[in-house]
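hi!! sorry for the late reply, been swamped w classes. u asked for the two structures so here they r. pasted raw, havent cleaned anything up. first the sequence of the first protein and right below it the tokens
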Amino acid sequence: MVDEAVRVQTSRRQMILGLAAGLSACALPAAPPGRRVRLPLLTSTQLPSRVVEVWLPSGYDASGAPHAVLYMHDGQHVFDEVVGIANAAWGVHTALQRLIDQQAVRPTIVVAVSNTSERSREYGPQAPIETLPVADQVLLPRLTDWPEGQPRDERALPLSDRYLRFLVEDLKPQVDRSFRTLGDRDNTFVMGSSMGGLISLYALCSYPQVFGGAGCLSTHWPIATNPALLTPRIDPLVARAAAAYRQWLAGHLPAPGSHRIYFDHGTETLDSLYAPHQEQVDALLRSQGWREGVDWTSRVFPGTNHSEAAWRARVDQPLQFLLRR
């Protein structure tokens, strides 16, 4: 019996040692790089408060050096998959930390600004939309809490000018006070996807003295998010809205040489709608003397769709284009 007990104990010890060796041989999940800070909810003079998180790369605390700042829309999708819609996110902090470590980009902090139920109204470019009849304006946004069958009214009109004032007048000053930032135009950037691409370009053109670059992934040029205008066919209102934005851009793009703009799109799902619109915007930048590959770039990713997974797979490209040293 004693020999049997010794044998069992030896067997258990060997099993535990074997498991430990196996675990040490496996690559355990790496800890998220850097650290994140959730800002206190701001009392905005423009819009209701929302969650804002700031990511600081590893090395920020020790370096003592000021950092560039990248403002990102749809903040729920920027970092963690578990908090984004459909459990998907960009993992921007992971990609950016890798690029910083490789010295491919300047040290940069990320300010992730969460969206709200008014996302369609806050991200739709207001000045171009307001050139349309009011009856058309109120049809454009997707209104998640609108009673079915009820007529739309002025509560469906755009809010993006207020949203940009929130970013520029309320949020940016707090970020610059609370963190070591390079607050000048050449080190302040804005980026988003889909409607977030629309509002990023609108931000740069509305506040060219504040934002030095805009990343616009899968830019939703149709502007409309009301499903009735996009399915089963694209409504003529969509073409008029997109044309209104291009006409506004023609008079509000900054002079070439002072800013950077990154565009891209895929070819599947919603992204399949974007190529004709993007080609016209590309032609507009060329006509105004923007240097392709230097001041701006426009890239196509065949076979990719309209999703956080697609943007996560290529997010290093806009980061490198905008934040290169």
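now the second protein. again sequence first, tokens right under
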Amino acid sequence: MAFQLIAQVILMDVRLPGLNGIEATRRIKRDLPAIHIIGVSSFDDTVTREAMEAAGSSAFTAKIFVHTLPHIISRVTGKDVAQRTPCVRSRHG
């Protein structure tokens, strides 16, 4: 989808079926380096954070901090989205 949509920001779950989010991030950044990828994981550990950073992610957050995404997106893009974009929590995590 990244290659079809050419989004400015991608929220990338680290654990994906098949190709994991770390490898997906690496491939997207190789071909589309201007896209900001924000890694999201249920686990907030150093190994996962560093792997996403090495793959080229612009930021990383644990799912329990998903409410901070508007601020993270503002920081990585330089655009103020925090006041315009309400963050709705999903009941599914």
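hope this helps!! also noticed smth abt the second:
The beta strands are 9-13, 36-41, 59-62.
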